[in-house]
Specification:
globular, binds zinc ion, mainly alpha, 163 residues
Length: 163
């Protein structure tokens, strides 16, 4: 997935912030950590391109392991419960890790993700075989476009409400 991650991160953060609206959680900080989490797994590409050329796929790093993000997500949920949803830091950790986890789900749509890593070395993908047709004519591009349009629609609705 290329531009769908930020859109998905925006949608999740925007919709879930409603749960924190009346608590002492700031919307801009919540959105920042949500958007950052939605692209955080891909920062492993820096290491992949600049340092390590041994792995054939950057999805093999722990930063793309769903179990890694799921563990962090459960820990952040526990932290959030301890503070009864009223503290900025656990709320930021929650949206960051949730969007990191969603990133791995979205990457499974367009590529291979090692869902049971580090215990099982087997990739899973919703795409049986990467076709040779240009990406913008692929059905998975439609998903990215849908996410983008949904994010834009949410953004325009909320910016109209602010006026
Ligand atoms: Zn990725």
């Amino acid at each position: 997935m290329t531009f769908g991650h930020l859109s998905a991160g925006y949608i999740t953060s925007k919709l879930l912030f409603r749960e924190f609206k009346h608590q002492s959680v700031y919307s801009k900080a919540f959105m920042f950590w949500g958007l950052f989490g939605s692209i955080a797994p891909d920062f492993d590409m820096l290491y992949y391109f600049l340092v390590d050329h041994t792995l054939p796929n950057h999805h093999k790093y722990f930063s793309h392991f769903p179990l890694f993000w799921l563990t962090l997500l459960l820990m952040s949920l526990f932290w959030l419960q301890l503070h009864h949803h009223r503290n900025q830091n656990p709320a930021s950790a929650f949206i960051f890790t949730l969007n990191g986890f969603i990133h791995t789900i979205l990457d499974t749509v367009t590529g291979e993700i090692w869902w049971l890593a580090p215990f099982v070395n087997k990739p899973f993908s919703l795409v049986a075989e990467r076709s040779e047709i240009p990406y913008f004519t692929d059905w998975t591009f439609g998903i990215e476009l849908f996410l983008l349009l949904l994010a834009l629609s949410l953004w325009s609705t909320s910016s109209m409400r602010r006026r």
